[in-house]
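Look over this one:
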Amino acid sequence: RPHEKDIALDVATLLGDELRAAGFVVLMTRDADVFVPLGTRNAMAAEHGADLFVSLHVNHAENPTALGAETWIAAPARDERSALVAARENLGAGSTSELADYVSQLLSNTKTEESRALAEAIQEEVVAATGATDRGVKEAGFVVLLGLRVPSALVEMGFLTNVDEATRLADPGYQADLAEGIASGIARYVRSHSYIP
């Protein structure tokens, strides 16, 4: 089975190329097979004065038939599944009690409505570019999105636990479609907002 880290890096590299070709300045948290801690990723964005932040991931589920793309923003989880997805993505970010304090302190500083508009644009364009099942825009307290004072979104590009979708996610052509969709969503958001952040 392909690895999330490889798929995410492959799509991120293609996405960076797409955005640079469209005139964006792109800062990637990694360009090689190295682990960058969750809290370091958003800190890099803040340190470099980023106007937007997008984090790429691949989903997992106990149900092997789960499939599709979904885009997340930082906000209190609205249901149990959202809380579980955030908990899985937040592994390694600290103890549970420290994490709960961190989440509650930082959620109030997020650009929720701007992030929702960014996430909606990305989600719509990814579905259009790939034909992926549309799982919508969702909310949870992802550490990688917390503390950012700019529009930010986390894209779950599909499910590795679904055999057919895992095969697509590992395909370079499908990865190019994902990158194109995400880039189109970002560009659409930027065009529709005269001031960023």
